[in-house]
Structures are given as structure tokens and as C-alpha cells.
Amino acid sequence: MVADWAKDGVRPLIYFNPYIANLTNIEGPASNQFKEGVDNDYFVKNEDGEVYIIGSISIDFAMVDFTNPAACKWFGDILVTNGVEEAKAIGWMHDFGEYLPFDAVLFNGADPKEYHNKYPEAWAKVAHDHLADYPDVVPFMRSASVNSPKYTRLYWMGDQLVSFGKHDGMWSAMIGLMNSGLSGMTMGHSDIGGYTSCNILDIGLISYIRQEKLLVRWIEMSTFSDAIMRSHPGNLPNMNYQIWDDSHTVQLFKNFTEIHVALGDYKAMLVEEATTKGTPFTRPCLLHFPDSPGARAEHSEFMLGPNILMAPMMNKFFSHRHVYLPGPANWTYLWTGYEHKVGAEGLHIKWFNSPEGRPAVFLRSTEEYPFDIHAFIVKVYEIFGLTAIEYIN
User: Can you list the domains of the chain with their CATH numbers?
Assistant: First the structure.
């Protein structure tokens, strides 16, 4: 299958975590990695000196002990051999890392309480060290400690609810991008449409099943916030609304991925800046307008680099929202070319209309941060098949 994809220049994103399930009594696997780990002392142990078996829902597994250099090499070789060479992956979800028990016994004798938060950093370092010859392969993580960013190429915001929620949903993913960016995790993204769904209406509780509006609004936000665009069917794919469920959504997704491509050079500049300076990819407004009280208070908008501001629509009932434009700056609305000349006090627009497919995106260009606003607007109009516009200044 992957060989056929490769003919079209397509490579898959796959999945790894540092846990090895005991499949000894299950037919099918070509190799028994659990037995390899036990025989070679690659796993975290319990206080009795036996392999520490941890349960998670229906799976029992052992944890690779990354204080053992031989275990690091063993699992790093698995990433390269199985992931890069065999699966031809362009990257993977480098998942988990937060499960180390406080009573574990580690190969190098480290205190498990102290090593608990270092474990995800060590897990990231295994990929970092073994992918030195594969700069195009991008593992992405959600677990981290303070020094993890130097080993991690990309983050994702975890398993949000399929909702617009501020505490666990689309809005929380945006807040997570801004907060993590300021904390040194410079490049991130989220599952487009969210991940966590539940269907428990039969016992009278609230159900979280993804609807079209949420998916569309998340596509819009990811286009202007994320280092990569990556959709996810969610944990209940047959119930959640999917990109391919309707031709209108397919076309909309196509259009916004083409905007993502059109921003390629701009986003590449932000990647370079993140790599060399540690500047976040997705930024709160306060980073560029630190003297603006409105920008410092704003947490429902973000900036993609210095030139693009977006106020995502995060309400399933309305197509309008409050928009705050920080100043001093001249902000050009993407869909009309109208320029807002904003003073140092900023500009509040109470009822800004943002229908589906027309997100509230504003552009600016300064001597310090040049940006060809006209060329970008023309490109977006070409993508959407819209007629030429006249600037209203």
C-alpha cells in the first residue's frame, strides 16, 4: 500500500509510543518485541525486580527504560527500521511518555519521582538522535518537560473534545498553542476537528459528537495557526462528521489547504525564526503589541507571525463575534481589502460578521515586517474562484 502511495509522492503519518504490549500468545506479529525487551533488560522494573506491567483500558504493557543506553538504541532502531524505511513515514505521533510510576526501578538507579518528568524528554531524544539523517521526518509530541523543545520537532495540543470549548475544545487548542509557544515549544498544531467524542445520551448525559460547523471552523483556524494541517477522524469516526462526508466540506478543505500552501514561504520563515531564535510560530497579540492593554488581555485571537491576525469563530450558534485589532497598526481585512487604520488604543469591533469559509483574518505590513498584502489577497481570491476586488481605503 505505501509503495503505491509513494508512486504519487504520498507518504503516511503513523504512530509510535514507548510502550510494548505483551503479544506472546497472539498469532501474527513478525517479531516479539516484548520478549526482546524482557530478555535484554530493556524495560522499567517494579520493586520486585520484575517487568513493571501497566494497564490502560484493555491493554497491558511494559515501558521502555530510557535510562538504559542499549534500550534507547534498540527502540531508536525500531523507529528508523519500521517507521522510516519500511513504512516510508514522513512522520508520526510520538505519543505518551507521562506514565512512569513513582515506585518504578530504573536501569541507572535514578529516583523515579525525579525522573518522571524527564521521561518524555528522554523519549523525544531517542527520536531526535536516531533521525539525524532524516531531516524531513517529523515526529510530533504532546508530553514534555522544560528541556524537551531542543529534542522535539513539533508538538500537538492533545486530545481535545469535539467542541468549541475554552477548557477542552477548539478554543483550548488555540490557547494551548499560544501558551506553549511562549514556554519554548515554538511549533505546534492540533487535531483538526478535535479527537475525544462520546455518545452517552442513552443514560441522560451530554453527548459530544462532531458536527460540520465545528469541523469547518477548526479547518479555518488551523490554516492560519498551525505549522502543519492534520485532520483526525476522532475516536468515534462513524459518528463524527468527517471532511469527506459532503462535497462542500471537501471543497472548503481543499481551498484552505491551498491557502496553507500559499503561506508556505511565510511559514518557512517562521520555522527558521523558531529554530534560530526560539520565537513562537503562533503568537498572542501581546508579543507584538506589549504596550497595548487590549492585546495583553486578549485570549480569543492570535497572530501567525508578525503579519497575520486571526479571530477564529468559536460559537456553534452565531457567525459574528467581537474582534479586537491592536495598534498602532493598519490592518487589512482579507476578504474585502478594507484597511482599518488603528491607533495605539486599539479598535473594538463588536459585531464582526464571519460566515463559514470567510474567517476573520487581517493582514499588516510594516518596514520592520514587510508583507505583500495585495499578492496574498489576489492568491486567496484565485483559490476560491472569486472575482477581482477593489480596495476600499
Answer: 1-152 (3.20.20.80)
